[in-house]
Amino acid sequence: TGAISSLQRQLEIQESQLRRIKSEKETLQKKLRERENQLQAMSTKFCSLREEQKPEEMMVTIEKENCSLRQVVTEQESKLAEQNKLISELQGTVSQLQAEVLTSQYHIRKQQRAQEAIQSQAETLQHRELQTRVALECITSRFERYRSKIIQATFSTAGSKPPQAEVTDEEVLEAMQKIINERMEFHQMLKQKGVK
Question: The organism sits in which domain of life (predicted)?
Answer without folding.
Answer: Eukaryota
